[in-house]
Amino acid sequence: MAKLLFSQGGRKLLWLVLAPFFLFFILILAFVAEDTKPPTGQYTIGSQLSEAVLQYEEIVYGALLEYELEEHTPLVLAIMMQESGGTASLDVMQASESIGLPPNTITDPVYSIEVGVAHFEKVLAKRERLGVDLDTAIQSYNYGSGYMDFVAANGGKHSAALAQAFSEQQVAKLGWQSYGDPEYVAHVKRYIGTMRDGEVLDLANATADFQVVYETMLQFDGYPYTFGGMSPTTSFDCSGLMMWAFRKIGVNLPRTAQEQYNASQKITAEELQPGDFIFFTGTYNAGRPVTHIGMYVGNGKMFDANGGGIGFTDLNNRYWQEHLYGYGRIVDFSGGEGG
């Protein structure tokens, strides 16, 4: 028997017998690997943010934009919410200590944001150098950048256990009663919304909700385009207009056109219906593929904020045809009928 199995013919026979089992095992592993992948998605403005914090959304976005970190606007607002307790405090980001001053020395909220964002940028830069995860950077806003070195030396990924261990280490070293907030990451993330990539929201009052979005946008017809704008006070850029209008029906979109594209379910031109998004590329040098977004309103037109201002745009225009990137849907305004 042994000679049969390990002869040339025997090996072929053995392979034929075992091959199906190997294939089945590989498929199971692939399924488990796919099933355990964390869902991808985009950060959005959290619904639990207070008005005292939301009033600084544009200022935070503008400060982050200077470092090309504007996609982190929801995260920084969540940090602000945690640091200020959602109140109208003056040092809204508790940034005084990051520049060597006693707590709450800063008394100008805008300056607090500028200092806090500058510190946040340094934290992210160090995170990049050390190769640690984003949660480590978030925890470091509370613990200080030494926590990143600690995590880098212990696997490179934040965990509640590592945060607790670092806190205890600092207590022993400094002789304090406590050190920082070991659960800071969880406390910050409760103020961040998420939108799974490709998820389409079915709303109970789809038709009425479309009218709310459409009429919200329509009231800004003729307003000028403002890069970085996201409210009537400053006017809007393309993605800021979408964020403002969709928030009126309880849908919090990511901040940039690229992130809104990532979050949308991709559809074809034939499936396009009013309320869907149309994306464009190369409209300016943004360092990313998707640079502009408009909302389709029917009859070959979209409503958008572009260099010519806010209003209706003819999609048959040669410029927009040449820069067309794709179509996406985040809310199904058909009420389940069609696309």
Automatic annotation (TrEMBL):
Residues 206-331 form the NlpC/P60 domain. Keywords: Hydrolase, Membrane, Protease, Thiol protease, Transmembrane, Transmembrane helix. GO terms for biological process: proteolysis. Pfam families: Lysozyme_like (PF13702), NLPC_P60 (PF00877). It comes from the Bacteria. CDD domains: CwlT-like (cd16891). GO terms for molecular function: cysteine-type peptidase activity. The chain crosses the membrane at residues 12-33. The keyword Secreted does not apply. Belongs to the peptidase C40 family. This is NlpC/P60 domain-containing protein.
